Each structure stands twice: as C-alpha cells, then as structure tokens.
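Database export, one record per block. Field names are fixed; values are copied verbatim from the stored entry.
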Amino acid sequence: MKQLMLIHGALGGADQLIPLKDLLKEDFKIHLLEFEGHGKKAAAGSSFSLESFEQQFSKALSKIDEPVHIFGYSMGGFIALLHTANDNKQIYSITTLGTKMKWSQVIAEKETKNLNAAVIAEKVPWFAEALKKRHGDYWQDVMKRTADFMKELGEIQPVQESAMKKIEIPVQSCLAENDAMVSIAETQQVQKWMTNCTLEIIPESKHPIEQVDLMALANTIRSFVQSLD
C-alpha cells in the first residue's frame, strides 16, 4: 500500500486532517504530521521557524522506510516544497492545497494584522474557541508564533525560481475556487517554475480546510497518485 503523509497548515493541527484521512485510508497508509507547538504538541517547542519545521518534516520522513506521497495544506505544502527543493530522495509526489507562494514584508504585515489574539477573542469568539479547543491554553502563543513565522517568510522570501526549478518530482498544486488568501496568479507563477507541476481547482471551496469539498479533494489526490503508476 502506498504511503501518504498529511501535513496541516498554520494555526492548525493533525485533527483537522482526520476527515480527509478517513476518505483516503482505504487507498493509502496514512501518516499525520503535527508540528511542535500545534494541537496536542502546543506546549512543546519555542519559536516557529522555517528551519525547525523542515527538520521536523525530515525527521518524520526518516521514520518511513518507503517512498512517500505528500499532501500539504497551506503551510504544510510550503514546507514540503522547500524541503524537496533541497532533498527529494524519498518523496514520490506532492499535492498542495491553498499554499501561499508569494511573500514579502508588505504581505506579511497584512496577514499578521489578522493574528491579534485579543481582538479575535473579542470580535470573533467562535474562532477563538475553535483555536482553544485545538491548542488548549496555548492558543494565543500559537498565534503569536505564527505571526512571527510569517514575518520571517516576508523577510527571506524563500520561494524563488532557482529553488523551485530544483523540484523534479510530480507536484499537484490545488487551489480552492474561492480562496481569498492565495491568488491563482502566484500559484501559476510557481507552477511554471517547476519541472512537473499541474494546477487543479477544487470547486465550491474556500481557503479554510473546513470549507473545502473534501470528497473532491480526496478524489483529486487519489487520481493524481494513481496516474503516477
């Protein structure tokens, strides 16, 4: 049975991927990667950084002694792509969903304005409760660390043509039809840089994975991997 690793996004946790896992478990042996400082691991880790996330991803891969297909949601796809640009020995393919490729200090500043825990607790209490349910009493720390991580991305702007051209394995970039965070233009630009990348639109879906048509997403992942046989 083929190996498939599912990776969550920023502010997320492994629990968000369980519904997708359930749709794919008959076809793949599923591995869930939960980054330190998130979900059940919210109390662990210190600052969030690209280096730390890549190291955790690499460590998770080392525990699987077979080629692995990757699905990365949002930040999860970002980490998988950047890691693969430097080391693609074990990764067979990557599917991303809603992965923001274009970063700058201006974009990072805009995104982090939405990550004020005090304002969210007051103005969007349902979201604060959802984060508290996922990360426990550490949810505000998770939000602050995420904002700091976005600032790092804005400063170093890691997605460059020279790096993406190193990725030779099959990649499928998926984008929700009504994604308000990630543009089709930035997705298409990076798609052109990669050697073997296709673009798929998930219909009637938005950026949050809870608002994605998971059946359509699961079918897209399944069909892509099967096409590589």
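Remark 1: The two ends are 12 Å apart (CA to CA).
Remark 2: DSSP finds ten helices and six strands in the chain.
End of record.
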